[in-house]
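> Could you send the Putative flavoprotein involved in K+ transport prediction when you get a chance?

Sure thing. Input:
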Amino acid sequence: MKPSHVEVAVIGGGQAGLSISWYLKKAGIEHVVFERHRVVNEWRSARWDSFCLVTPNWQCRLPGFPYDGVEPDGFMLRDDIVSYLDRYVASFEPPLMEHTHVKRLRKLPGGHFEIDTSAGTWHANQVVIATGGYQIPTVPRSAERLPDSILQLHSSNYRNPASLPAGEVLVVGTGQSGCQIAEDLHREGRKVHLAVGTAPRAPRRYRGREVTDWLTESGYYAIPIDKHPQGEAVRDKTNHYLSGRDGGKEIDLRQFALEGMRLYGRMKDIAGSTMQFEPDLRRNLDSADASYLNIRAAVDRYIAEAGIDAPLEPAYTPVWQPDVDPTELDVTASNITSVIWSIGFGVDYRWAELPLFDGRGHPVHKRGISVMPGVYFLGLPWQNTWGSGRFADVGLDAQFLIDRIAARVAQPATTLAA
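Output:
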């Protein structure tokens, strides 16, 4: 029988929960990892068939388990990612409780925490909330006004072009998922309409090297959020879009437009079968290009300051410009049979009945240390650096937390209760 009381309860069995479990096990600290589904479920069940990483494989460096394959500069496909994580689990056998839903977390008098789960009630002295920052798929309520004949999916439920009904497809949102799904459909010959938001884009290779290498070497990825020029605001920024397909490449929506993809601005509203868009397509494309050029300029500065001999590249020139900013699309007249919503995720911590959150429901923390002693967060975007929440640096965040957790384990019980 497993104990109903542990020193540390970890909620979430993704890469964040596994990372802190690795450190807890190494330190000999009794703990349990609760996972609502199967371990690393999001990678198994919420990624499309052709999904691949946009960061190179060498950045997969979970604690005690760096990437050991033959393509460190490649980009793992979905099934390879799942295999990597399954092998990670097998390498240290964390104390997992899979298919266990955490329904409620609260603090008891005396300092302990009570975790009400589908497998019974547990108590813990400390809790690590490792459910990540992408929990609830976002679909606008206006979607309810679309005709019932149109299939609507969130990006997390998209699998492949063949799974959609015949006809044209509208993808709403141009973060990483939206752009990559639009590309996936486009490559298969589907007629795609794409509502372009304010997401930035990034170069893939520049001046002879993968840009990820330049940004790592220059120290950008190691900048902590409290020293980042954008400060806390960077947590709300959409990830730059690019692709790991075909060995890694840039995504240029202007090129897609040249090839027949129809581009629009941000979705504004829905009236019957008519989608309405903001007149901001040109502005959004220009803004994405500005981010692209800023990254190139940052690499140029680093190369110059470090005195590196690197080949020059020609100036960027847009390959396409919209004549107008289209503001309407009749989905019925255009034979659109599917709409894929790729406008992100929300958070849902209602089960955590603790005063740990701000007015938007987001955790209040400093490098994962919450405002309540004994409770920690792990795997959040920009928890400390760009790599937080990613395979790259979630292990560093876990390492930071384990020292605080271990120090609390060593404190007398009377001190903790106080």
